[in-house]
Amino acid sequence: MNNPSFASRQIGDFAVTALSDGNMAASLELLSGIDTADAAEIQRDAGLAEPGNIHINGYLIRGLGRTILVDSGTGGLNNSGGELGEKLRLVGVNPEDIDTVLLTHAHPDHIGGLLDAQGQPVYPNAEIHIHPLEAQYWRDDSKMMQVAEHRQRNFLLARRMLTAYAASLKFLDGGEIVKGIRSVWLPGHTPGHSGYRINSGEQSLLIWGDIVHFPHIQSAQPGVSIAFDCDAVQAETTRKTIMAQAAHEKLLVAGMHFGEPGFAHIKTVSGGYRVVYPEN
């Protein structure tokens, strides 16, 4: 039975539920293109008591006989998040029930929950869908050697995940994954960073991954980037393009770093946009 405290939307044939994995601490100093004091003011104006926290969501999609998870949270890595597995249990889903995992990209707060403490698959019956450029990036030794040592651990985690799920790995090609759900390539944050668009019945939803990490800041000022971006220039271009599209289409959007409401609309305002969460 669904817990009514979890935000959920019916998109045609699919019930989509936002499942919080918890938070991770991140300094506003990770942002570029904005003064830290100005960023903090935007966060305070949005009513956020802890302006440096980044919230983490995963999304459960059920319909047409499928049980799909979009991203897996952190798995508790780095003492952050780790709550998504319990949230799945609360909505009546066991790890064995998940038949498909759609990955937006392979940063630890998105794939950490795919492996258990022994490095074995948490979702043994799931196909793992990822953009081919994403897998290529994390497997590239030259790319790994270009980053600081502490970030090399991210490469090693991604490689362990890709190896553990090698037999069930599927590469995105922009086509339908299941009827009504297809991937959308949104590069910049990582080379293969992808969203997932559901078009079912008369309704649509775009799960856009990490287009924003601080939603209020990066919607108000889409030129603001974060240190986690592999290519900040490309990430900015992608962010501006997809925000303009979402605002124009009045598209319902879901984001891995939205707040617990999980779903929002993007409204055009002077100089940028505004993330508008539903009131209930």
Written account of the structure:
This protein is an alpha+beta fold and 280 residues long. 26% of the residues lie in helices and 29% in strands. The chain contains 8 helices and 16 strands. Strands 1-2-4-5-6-7-8 form a 7-stranded mixed beta sheet. It has a 7-stranded mixed beta sheet with strand order 9-10-11-12-14-15-16. It has a two-stranded antiparallel sheet with strand order 3-13. Strand 5, helix 2 and strand 6 form a beta-alpha-beta unit. The chain is globular. It starts with 7 loop residues before the first strand and ends with a strand.
How does the SSE layout of this entry go?
Layout (H helix, E strand, L loop, with lengths): L7 E4 L2 E12 L5 E2 L3 H10 L7 E11 L2 E5 L13 H7 L9 E3 L5 H4 L15 E4 L1 H7 L2 H5 L3 H16 L4 E3 L4 E3 L2 E5 L8 E7 L2 E5 L7 H6 L4 E2 L5 H18 L2 E3 L8 E7 L2 E5 L4
Parallel strand pairs: 5-6, 6-7, 7-8, 12-14
Antiparallel strand pairs: 1-2, 2-4, 3-13, 4-5, 9-10, 10-11, 11-12, 14-15, 15-16
Considering the chains and any ligands shown, give keywords for the structure.
280 residues, alpha+beta, Metallo-beta-lactamase, Chain A, 7-stranded mixed β-sheet, 16 strands, globular
